[in-house]
Amino acid sequence: MPFLFLLFILIPIIEITVLINVGQAIGTWYTVGLVLLSAFIGINMLRYQGLSTLARAQQRLSAGEMPAQEMVEGLVLAVGGALLITPGFVTDFIGFCCLIPFTRQAFVKGLMKRFKVISMSKQQTFEQTDTFDESEFGHHSSFKDPSKPPRQGDIIDGEFRRDD
């Protein structure tokens, strides 16, 4: 939590400092023009890269594979798009890094490695705490394991009639 707080404090301070320095060096209107130009170029790149990622995800789905990498790429593209819309040169630089395929692949590999570590640790904790004895509570759970055959008495046969 302190990391996010520092991030939301430091990034605007850095952005304002860079914008002021660039504005003093090349002029206010040129600085505004550069910020708008980078946003325009970034949005067009986002559209192209997003459609490309979507097409690859659809190809994987039609082949019967899970498009995990494309899903993470979509997340990185969304973050990059949000950073490009945010005015400033530092966020634009990070946003463009999210859109360029080479750097995006590096981000995706790092994120997927981190997700695998987290998901494997969660899975191990779940498997360790997966022991649940229904008899302790005197009732049966309504969620059944589909791989186990139903026990005697679990199936209720009945009829109903609607009276309007």
Give an overview in words.
Helix content is 71%, strand content 0%. The radius of gyration is 26 Å and the shape is elongated. The relative contact order is 0.08. The termini are far apart. Helix 1 crosses helix 2.
What is the element layout, followed by pairings?
Layout: H1 2-26, H2 28-62, H3 68-85, H4 89-99, H5 101-128
Helix pairs in contact: 1-2, 2-3, 2-4, 3-4, 3-5
Q: Please, what is the average pLDDT?
A: 79
Rounded to an integer, what's the Rg over CA atoms?
26 Å
Q: Which structural class do you get from the secondary structure elements?
A: mainly alpha
The strand count comes to 0
Please summarize the sheet with the most strands.
none
Helix content: over 70%
Succession of helices and strands: HHHHH
Care to give the gist of this entry?
The chain is an all-alpha fold and 164 residues long. Helices cover 71% and strands 0% of the residues.
